[in-house]
Amino acid sequence: MADKVAEHKHCPVCGRSMGGNDRFCSPECEQALVKQRKKQQRTMYIFMGVLVLLFVVMLAFPNACSSLLGGGTTARP
Ligand SMILES: [Zn+2]
């Protein structure tokens, strides 16, 4: 019943059906995916960098951060 579905694949970028062993229907689509991956990776690196920066700032200035976050648990004069 589903044996004919395995005969062809779909391009992961544009969704066009294609035959053969190609992963993409065209070099343009391959480039598009590579670009998208790089963009995603860069966004993740920036996100991680911001997290690390936040962590370092919180370690360096614990009092400033607790007052910034509005934590009333710290003893203040
Ligand atoms: Zn394509």
Please describe the structure with a list of short key phrases separated by commas or semicolons.
single chain, 77 residues, mainly alpha, binds zinc ion, 2 helices, two-stranded antiparallel sheet
Characterization of this structure:
- The protein is mainly alpha-helical and 77 residues long.
- The chain has one domain (5-68).
- Helix content is 53%, strand content 5%.
- It has two helices and two strands; from the N terminus they run ββαα.
- A two-stranded antiparallel ribbon has the order 1-2.
- A hairpin with a 6-residue loop joins strand 1 (9-10) and strand 2 (17-18).
- Helix 1 packs across helix 2 (62-68).
- It starts with 8 loop residues before the first strand and ends in a 9-residue tail after the last helix.
- The site of zinc ion has 8 residues, from loops.
